[in-house]
Write a structure and sequence with these properties.
Elements lengths: L27 H7 L21 E6 L2 E8 L5 E5 L13 H5 L3 E5 L16 H14 L5 E6 L1 H12 L4 E7 L9 H18 L3 H7 L3 H8 L11 H8 L7 H8 L15 E6 L7 H10 L3 E6 L6 H4 L1 H13 L25
Parallel strand pairs: 3-4, 3-5, 5-6, 6-7, 7-8
Antiparallel strand pairs: 1-2, 2-4
Helix pairs in contact: 3-4, 6-8
Length: 350
């Protein structure tokens, strides 16, 4: 996968401080002309065949319930952390493939999905602590942690604050660099509020709204590159937790905390995945993370938005599993090399 060194990494001009990404939404008609065959293709094994309630649990952490999925088994455990306004269902296209040979934990962060609001104020550091304590509650040792957007921000914080917990980190379109630009996140906040109004915050309301391609693009146009190419039931699962009470405090937390000076403390092998057409997190942020993190590899996915894990699950899963399979001692990474991905990991991407 070629890096995007020949294209704009950030918007030019004075508006860069208002909306840093140079990418813009496209119409649903554009998906018919532009999207390649791999975009939106479902992963195997499929998530629809899983009895998810049988794998869903709750644990009391610091006096508040945290909802999580626990599935699969193996010597390695992989923890998935969702982004702002999301839930564990953000990883539906990825969990079954990873759980074939590993134990998977996918949680709702405090204040999101079916997890209760925490007693303490929400912050990125508090999210990282909650994840660490859930892992301790489950008797886990060092884990591989995969986070998207605010979940990527939390993953980086977890690797800094609790390095003994994170043996490998995967940052997927991670917030934490230009998320300090409040105007960008205010636009995201307005978008989310409009979705809450349109869907009434329920999967049933989401299904009604997503019955037409135009509404699908309106609801997900800031998140996915070609929303109308994604399965409607998958999109409905993403909207089930819209309106969670943790949204506003989490928005404030990610837009006021500067993690950049501490990124050099991340000692574990790190994979940075980024869509070139992410409207919320500009592709330049991926290179900033890579520049600061000592043992990082970067995978740039062309014509992909903010959620490559379900926009391009086939490519994403191949790359993730190869990264997890790499023979790298997590406590002693090679100081001369960074983790790399073979061409087969990104075969079929554009």
């Amino acid at each position: 996968m070629a890096s995007r060194t020949d294209a704009r990494l950030y918007r030019r001009g004075p508006l860069r401080t208002i909306w840093p990404s140079p990418s813009r939404p496209v119409s649903w008609r554009a998906a018919k002309r532009r999207a390649d065959a791999e975009y939106g293709a479902p992963a195997t094994p499929g998530w629809r065949d899983v009895d998810w309630p049988a794998h869903t649990h709750q644990a009391e952490i610091d006096g508040a319930a945290i909802n999580y999925v626990d599935i699969g088994s193996g010597d390695q455990t992989v923890v998935f952390i969702h982004g702002l306004g999301g839930s564990w269902q953000n990883w539906l296209e990825n969990i079954p493939a990873v759980a074939e040979r590993r134990r998977v934990i996918a949680l709702d962060l405090p204040g999101f999905g079916r997890s209760a609001m925490p007693r303490a104020p929400i912050s990125i550091t508090a999210f990282a602590t909650a994840v660490d304590r859930l892992c301790a509650h489950l008797g886990l040792g060092p884990t591989a942690v995969v986070g998207n957007s605010m979940g990527g921000f939390t993953t980086a914080e977890l690797a800094i604050r609790h390095p003994e917990r994170v043996e490998r980190a995967v940052l997927v379109d991670a917030a934490g660099i230009t998320s300090l630009t409040l105007s960008q996140n205010r636009a995201s906040e307005r978008f989310t509020r409009s979705v809450v109004t349109a869907t009434r915050g329920t999967p049933e309301g989401a299904r009604r709204m997503l019955s037409r391609p135009g509404y699908t693009t309106m609801a997900f146009g800031l998140i996915a590159r070609y929303p109308s190419r994604l399965a409607r039931d998958l999109l409905c699962e993403q909207l089930g937790s819209v309106g969670s009470p943790g949204f506003m405090p989490a928005f404030a937390a990610l837009s006021t905390y500067d993690i950049t000076p501490r990124l050099g403390e991340i000692a574990c092998p790190t994979l940075i995945v980024q869509g070139t057409e992410d409207i919320l997190v500009p592709v330049g942020d991926a290179y900033e993370f890579a520049r600061h993190i000592p043992h990082a590899a970067t995978l740039i996915l062309e014509d992909t938005g903010h959620v490559p894990m379900f926009e391009r699950p086939l490519t994403f899963n191949r790359a993730l599993l190869e990264f997890l399979d790499q023979d790298v001692a997590p406590d002693q990474p090679d100081g001369e090399q960074s983790p790399t991905l073979r061409e087969s990991a990104v075969e079929g991407s554009v």
